Amino acid sequence: MQQRSVLKENVLYWVGDADFGVYPGFEESGFYRRDTRYLSHYRWLLDGKPLRPLMQHLIRPYHLRQSCSNDDLGYLMKTGVRRDLMLGGLEATDTLHLSPYSAGARQLRLEVAADFSDMFQVRGAPKWERRFETAPVEGGVEFRYAGQDGVLRRAVITAEPAAEWDGQALSWTLEGAARVQVTARLLENDELPVPGDWTALEASYAQWMAAAPRLSDARDQEVLDRATADLRSLLFDTEHGPFPAAGIPWFVAPFGRDSLIIAHMLLPHHQDVVRGTLRLLAAKQGVRYDAVTLEQPGKILHEERVGEYTRTGHTPHRPYYGSVDATPLFVWLVGEYYRQSADLELVRELRPHWEAALGWMLSDADPDGDGFLEYTPHPGGITNQVWKDSSDSVFFEDGRDPDPQKPIAIVEVQGYAYAAYLAAAELYAVLGETELAGAFRARAETLRAAFVSAFYLPGLNYYAHGLDGDKRPMRVKTSNPAHALWTGIFPPEHAAMIAREALSSELWSGWGIRTVAEGAPRFNPVSYHNGSVWPHDTALAALGMRRYGLEAEARTVARALFDAARWSPDRRLHELFAGYAREDGPPVPFPAACHPQGWDAVIPLALAPLLEGTGQRESAD
Questions:
Q1: Per-residue pLDDT tens digits for 173-198
Q2: Where do the Putative glycogen debranching enzyme N-terminal domain residues begin and end (predicted)?
Q3: Other beta carbons within 10 Å of 200
C-alpha cells in the first residue's frame, strides 16, 4: 500500500503519495475542499522528466518545502529546484525556484486535471460521469463543474510568469535562474478568491506551540510538538468558532463523538476550541424525528457531510445522527467546561441544548426504561452506534451476534451517561436549582448501582462488553471497561481490578490495550475493532487509571503510547495499529487509517503530565 502524505489548512487539504504527488494511479490523492476532490492530477516535469525530491521538510502542516531535481543526478544534474507548497485561504500556492548548473533553456511543465469526485466516491461509492468545462484563463486554466446539487465548483489555476495551456499542462520555457509561482484556487459559485495570510497562520501555529507543555525527554518532546501542530491543522473555522476535524483524509468533517472527545482532552489548553465545538453541535442538534438520518429531538449528530453525493440524497449524512454516545458526551463536556472555566454565561447560553440532550437520554435513548442508554442497529446506516462501530464488533463469548432487532447497551456508554448526569447536577446547582441538582445526582447513583449489578462479571473479575435486548451480558474481555474508567462510573474497589485485567497479557500488547482479548472469539490482531490497538481508547484508559489514583498503571500506559509514536518516522501515533505483542517488533500501523487523526493527535497533550509525574487525580467516589 502506498504511503500517504497530507497538507491541511482550514477547509483545504492536499493528499499525495510519499512525495506529495497527486495522480490517478494513487486513487485517494488530490486537492480537496468540503468533501470534494477538485484536482485529481498535479505533476511537475522538468525537461520532460518528473521532479524528484532529494529532500523534503514539512515546515508546518500547511507548508511543504522540497529540494528537487529531475532524473539527472550527480554529475549530470543540470538544474536544482526548491519548491514551497503552501495552503491558505481558499488556495494553494506552489513556488519553484530554479537554479541552473549548465547553460541552455529549460522546459517546465505542470500537468493538471480535475475530476470533482465526491469523497464518498473516492472511497469506493458508485461514481457517475461528470461533465465539466475546461477553459484557458489569463496565465492559466479554469475547470468548472455545475453539480447535480446546484453548486458550481471551480478550480482556477493561474501562474506567474504566465503559462501556456495545451489542454493537458501549463508550460514555460525558462532561461537561467527563474521563479515560477502557481496558484490553485478552489471556489464555489461566485466566491471571490481568498489568499493565504501566511503571517497570521504562522502566528497561530507559534501560539499553539508555545502553549504546549515542555517535556524533559527530547524525543518525547518531538512527539508532543508533532501532535500539537497536527491538532492545530485539524481545526476548521465555523461561524460558531474553531472545530476539530476527526482525521485526514477521510474525516475532514464535523463528527460528534470524535470532536467531543478531542475537545474534552483540550480543555486545559484551548478552551476556544471547546466553545466552538459545543456551539456548533448545539446548532445542529436534532429537533425532529427522521427514520433515515436517525435524527431525534435533543440528539447530537454523529457526522455531517456537505459534498454532492450527500446533498443529492445518496447518503444520510445531512447530518446523520447514528450514535448513542455523542449526546451524553455533549452534556458531560458542558459540565467539565464550566468546572475549568467558571463561564456561567456559556452554560446559560447552551442550557436549552444540554437540557434537550438530557431529555433525549431519558426518553428515546432508553426505550425500555431500565435506565441504560441503548441503540438498535440501523440497517440503512451504522450497525453499532458506538465508537467500535464495525458490524462485527459486538458479540457474545461464543461468537454469536446479539439480536439486531432489539436494543443493545454498551459498557462505556453507561459511563458517559453517569458522567453526564453528574455534570447536569453540577450545572443545575450553580444555576441555583437545587431540586433538579439533587434529582440528577440521585439518577447518577441509581445508574451506577444498576450498572454494577448488570455488567459486573465476578467470574471474570471484569465487566461485560454490553447487554443484549434481553439483558444478557456479553462475557467477552474487551478494552471497553478500561476505557470507561475515564468516566468514574466504577466503584473504587473495582477500578484496580479492571486496570489489572487491562494490563494482563490477554489485553495488553505492550504498545496499548487490545480491543478484544487474545484468545477471545473473533480475536484478530489486524482487524479493525477485534484485536487491534486504538491509541485513543488506550489513552482514555490511562486517564481513567489516573482518576482512580492508579498512577503507576497510568504511567505504564502513557509511556507505551509515547514509545509507539517514537517508532513512527514522523513521530505520530496512528489511528490504530495491530495487536501484536511488543516483543514481536515495532507497532504495525493499520494501512487505511487516518493519519493524522484527531483523537491520536490530542493524546500526547493529554498524557504529557503523566510522563512528568504531574497528573492530578480527579475523585471517582
A1: 999 999 999 999 999 999 999 999 99
A2: 8-184
A3: 10
Q: Could you tell me if 511 and 577 are in contact, meaning their C-beta atoms sit under 8 angstroms apart?
A: yes
Check if the beta carbon of residue 322 is closer than 8 Å to that of residue 382. Answer: yes
Name residue 27's amino acid: E
pLDDT tens digits, 354-391: 999 999 999 999 999 999 999 999 887 899 999 999 99
Q: Which grid cell is 285?
A: 442538534
Rounded Cα–Cα distance for residues 91 and 79 (Å):
28
CA angle 11, 17, 20 (to 5 degrees): 60
Amino acid 303: pLDDT: 98
76 DSSP assignment = G
User: Domain 213-611 has what CATH class?
Assistant: mainly alpha
Q: CA-to-CA distance for 15 and 39, rounded, in angstroms? A: 10
C-alpha cell at 544: 481513567
Please name which of 118, 98, 172, 163 lies closest in space to residue 136, comparing C-alpha atoms: 163
**Model confidence at 113: pLDDT above 90:** yes
Contact yes or no for 506/559 (Cβ under 8 A) = no
Asked if 538 and 514 touch (Cβ cutoff 8 Å), the reply is no
Cα-based distances in Å from 76 to 47, 384, 462, 591: 13, 59, 67, 38
**Architecture of domain 11-196 in this structure:** Distorted Sandwich (2.70)
- 101-118 b/e with 16+ CB inside 10 Å = b? eeeeebebbbbbbbbbbb
Please state, in angstroms and rounded to a whole number, the distance separating the CA atoms of residues 275 and 289: 27
Is the Cβ–Cβ distance between 266 and 228 less than 8 Å?
no
Side chain identity at residue 231, one-letter code = L
C-alpha 395/C-alpha 472 separation (Å) is 11
Rounded to 5 degrees, what are φ and ψ at 235?
-70, 145
Q: How far apart are CA 299 and CA 354, in angstroms?
A: 10
Q: For 350-376, b where at least 16 C-beta lie within 10 A, e where not — what string?
A: beebbebbbbbbbebbbeeeebbbbbb
**Cell 477538485 sits on residue:** 38
- Exposed/middle/buried for residue 273 (C-beta within 10 Å: 0-12, 13-18, 19+): buried
Q: How far is CA 518 from CA 134, 370, 504, in A?
A: 56, 32, 10
User: 122-153, pLDDT tens digit by residue?
Assistant: 999 999 999 999 999 999 999 999 999 999 99
Pair 602, 265: CB distance under 8 Å:
yes
Distance between CA 344 and CA 136 in Å, rounded?
56
- Kindly tell me if the per-residue pLDDT of 618 is higher than 50: no
- Work out the burial of residue 516: count CB atoms within 10 Å of its CB; fewer than 13 is exposed, 13-18 middle, 19 or more buried: buried
DSSP-based helix, strand, coil % in the chain, nearest 5: 35, 25, 45
Q: 538 φ, ψ to 5°?
A: -65, -40
Q: Return the residue matching grid coordinates 459498557.
A: 411
Contacts of 259 (CB under 8 A, 6+ apart): 243, 244, 245, 246, 277, 281, 598
Read off the amino acid at residue 485: L
| Burial of 240 per CB tally in 10 Å (0-12, 13-18, 19+) | middle
Domain boundaries, the chain: 11-196, 213-611
